[in-house]
Amino acid sequence: MRRIIFPLLCVVVVSSCKSDPSLPETWEKRISGAKNTKEKKKAIEDLRGSKFMSDKMVPMLEKRLAEEKKPEVKADLARLLGEAKQASSIAALTEQIDPAASDSDAKNMNKEIATALGKIGNAQAVPALVKLLKSKDNFTQLAAIDALGDLKAKEGFDPLYEIATDDAIAPFITKKAIIALGEIGDPRAVPGLVKAMFKERGGVSFYMESSFALYQLGTPSADALVPVVEGKNKELLEWAGKNNIKDVALYAKGVQVLGDLHDRRAEKTIVTYLNFKSDFDDIKLIMRMRAADALGRMRSKEGVKPLAALLDENEANARKEYVWALARIGGKDAVAKLVETAGKGPWGAREESMRGVAMLGEDPTVFDKMAAAEQKLFEAECKEDPDYEECKDLAGSVKKHQDKINGYKNRAVAAAQCKSDAKCWVGFLDNKDEGVRERAAYEIGRSGNAEVIDELMKRLPEKNLDTRLAIIQGADWLIDDSKDALAQAKKSLPALEKQVADEKGKTEFVKVNEDLRRLLAKLQR
């Protein structure tokens, strides 16, 4: 009897009857055989989102990039090749750049090519990216700037510096170029970055970007800013005068960056700014507050006595800056003055002095006395200003004030136990009271004990902003004081880089994470 074997044969070879999605030729056939642009883009996106996208797909994608005609399809292929991050793709991507791009699809293709070249992260891409800086399309130019910054491409310095210092360039492109110069880290950028701190165009300031870039550059920036703060840079003063920039702006912003860098060469001059005089109270206080902040960051012992002398200031925000400078310095000689001024001025100012006692004092009973005195003090304040909102419920407000005062007591209780013992303070880094954690971080940071750096580094994701700032600052000081602490902290770089990336754009951390980014830059420097 004749056997019918065809069904069996089909079973045996069925695996070869269907396309294998793990093979590049399967996807090449689907992309090249698509009926229209929409289908091609869909095929590329399907590959991008599939588990089959791997390095073995790259040669096929490079071939398709060379053969495709539509720039919108090339843009999608470029994006996929950028994500694959293979150096072999640089030539293929570079060949597809359209220098004369005029329509939106061609411009978008150039932008995606620039982005892809940056993602590949190979210096071979730099010449092409430098050429893309000349693109007339802003988005392509921005992508090229970002890529050159990410690559820390020294070859990109000259054109980027030209963009950053050209007042005819759109402000958002200027900002990107400044950021890239900070990433590249060439000290030749310092003069332009110093001037950028004080420029405004159309109400747009470049201070945040340029001051951070100067921080990234480190010592060369401080070398330039010390004479600025001391009023000895005549060329910059002349330039400022011609551009209607006040001298006080030069001093205040220069002081801020020197404080961030912990550079003490201008310390004596900065101390004198604590008594800055002006016919305008707001300018006077701003200059004094910036000086106080800088002295606090650099832990200036010279600043303790003059800062304490300013504690009679009744403007709450100003007193806050003076108090926190003392708290950072560890100025325990100022505790008596803090206790005294805790009974002077309006509640907002008095509370700042109380917080200062909590950050520096070691006697918990002081807070019992403050709580007992609060009734009379606030009653007197309300007699002078009966329309003050809190005065509408006098008893309730006094109770809230006393609860706060009693809460501050916890920090003094911990201090009475630990004194200046860093290892003792480590035990309070996980205390339920964020104020206790905050003081612990500052005490550890000032201790110079490299052995405890890990305890601060692993707590950088702290949610309370004041406490996080103290942890960042404490870690920063330990790194400054000890090469061993620096070496140990560098082991936390991957976790810190991930944290900064994950928290980018989260508004709740914006202010304090400027300091977190500076800590990251210091470890990367």
Which CATH class of one domain? Mainly Alpha
Full CATH superfamily name of one domain: Leucine-rich Repeat Variant
Strand runs, count:
2
Given as residue ranges, the uncertain stretches (5+ residues, pLDDT < 50) are 1-17
The CATH architecture of one domain comes to Alpha Horseshoe
Helix content: 55-70%
The span between the termini is 84 Å
Amount of beta strand: under 5%
Average predicted local confidence, pLDDT: 95
Q: Work out the helix count.
A: 31
Descriptive key words:
2 strands, Leucine-rich Repeat Variant, elongated, two-stranded antiparallel ribbon, mainly alpha, 31 helices, 525 residues
Describe it for me?
This protein is an all-alpha fold and 525 residues long. Among the domains are: 24-151, Leucine-rich Repeat Variant (Alpha Horseshoe); 331-419, no CATH class; 422-525, Leucine-rich Repeat Variant, CATH 1.25.10. Helix content is 68%, strand content 1%. The protein is built from 31 helices and two strands. The chain has helices at 6-17, 24-32, 37-48, 58-67, 71-84, 89-95, 104-120, 126-132, 138-150, 157-164, 171-184, 190-196, 207-217, 219-229, 234-242, 247-261, 267-272, 281-297, 304-309, 316-329, 335-341, 347-360, 365-384, 394-418, 422-426, 434-447, 453-457, 465-481, 483-490, 493-503, 513-524, and strands spanning 200-201, 204-205. It has a two-stranded antiparallel ribbon. Strand 1 (200-201) and strand 2 form a beta hairpin. Helix 7 runs parallel beside helix 9 (138-150), helix 9 (138-150) packs parallel to helix 11 and helix 16 (247-261) packs parallel to helix 18 (281-297). The chain is elongated, with a radius of gyration of 30 Å.
